[in-house]
Amino acid sequence: MMVFLSIFQSVLAAMFGVQSHKKYHHDFKSNHFWPYAVIATLFVVMFVVFLIFLVNGVIATAQSQ
User: What is the pTM of this model?
Assistant: First the structure.
């Protein structure tokens, strides 16, 4: 579980561009690419779904006025 949280933290920090230089080098020393790719893909998909719901909600609110 701790490894998942570490990978999730790295992906989240990288998405927002606030990854520390030390953590960046630690992540790239890892021999496993796939956990980072899977978590990043899931994060992006969830972010896009959130944006779709947000825009649909704003549009529905604007049309009801």
Answer: 0.75
